[in-house]
Input
Amino acid sequence: MKYCVIGAGGTGGCIAAYMARAGKDVTVIARGEHLEQIRKQGIRLETVKGTEMVSPITAYEMREYTNRLAQKSVDASSEVSTEKSAGRPDVIFVCVKGYSLEDVVPFIKEASKKETIVIPILNLYGIGAKLQKMLPELLVTDGCIYIAAQIREPGTIRMNGTIFRIVYGVRDSDELRRELFLVAEDLRQSGIEAVLSENIRRDALQKFSYVSPMAAAGLYFHANADRFQVTGDERDTFAALVKEIDKLAEAMGISFQVDIVRNNMAILDALSPEASTSMQRDIAAGKPSEIDGLIFEVVRMADRYGVELPVYQKIAKELESYNV
Output
């Protein structure tokens, strides 16, 4: 199985590094100085257990990668072959920020073959269905990831915690393919916990029930994980936001199979104290952020489903100035 990972940040970079370390056929799409460092030295992973260099890792810019695929097709044709999918990925992991999603669609179309499976791994809810509309000729699953990681400097990714789990699945059982089971096996062989979900709508919302409250409360209090790991207003607010997502899920006809507050507290407490959300870091750096999809979309969903979420509404009002 050939894999392409779009994005070499905390999510995509860790997926690519773990799979490359396990000997899987994986290419990561990156850019700028981060790309150059990956080409020179691989990816340096800083974890709670120590630092590890993963090298070599195949890395390209988008245009370089599609040009390479086009050349392979030409070479195949010159060898009396009509195969146009030479070297094209069987699976594409989409690991970009929500605001960049539309920008990668042309690349996916150009890089794919008709059998390519697209697995979006984003913080936002409902991305698979949205991306499927843009890529009707391909199978696009839903997916999410449990990991706390970020680029510390070009070529170096810091993992804040030990949880590394990818959950993905099809929205329609008729779309289930053998290759999806092979993806899970490859991920597990790479040291990544893999879950091929039987109810991805529920499981993706369950992940969102952690990342959205953490982003909202983290920005509201301008706090890292340490302040949420002890008793206080920060921890109580996080719990209240999780409960409101549970309330929204009920209105959507979704029932979580776990005590969602206890589950999310366990994830939070497993983080390194200095961990923060990518949305917080983006806003602090003056970059575009996913605040609309992580916070304001929840308020819009509450309106659509006719539920009151007073804590979300309060925080959204306070954070309106960041939604630019």
The first strand starts at residue 2 and ends at 6. The chain is about 45% helix and 15% strand. The mean pLDDT is 94. The CA atoms of residues 272 and 308 lie 33 Å apart.
